[in-house]
Amino acid sequence: MNNIIRNPKARAYIYGILVAAGGVALIYGVATETQIAGWLGLAGSILGNGLALANTPTAGKHAAE
Q1: How far is residue 14's CA from residue 47's CA, in Å, rounded to a whole number?
Q2: Does the N-terminal or the C-terminal CB of the chain have fewer CB atoms within 10 Å?
Q3: Would you say 26 and 36 are in contact if contact means Cβ atoms under 8 Å apart?
Q4: Distance from C-alpha of 42 to C-alpha of 60, rounded to nearest angstrom
Q5: What is the pLDDT of residues 8-59, one digit of tens each?
């Protein structure tokens, strides 16, 4: 499923945005902690089987390149 977004920097950026959006949604009462966890889990699956963030380097080349 990593073929959707191949660039590891893009996946890391999207994860960061989604986590921040989840925090804002929680603060404003738009979603509960359980709902946010579910949505972030789904996003992790879509963006890389939940392992993309852990395997995305912060510097240098991606191991799969």
Answers
A1: 9
A2: C
A3: yes
A4: 28
A5: 788 788 888 988 999 999 999 999 999 999 998 888 777 765 455 555 666 5
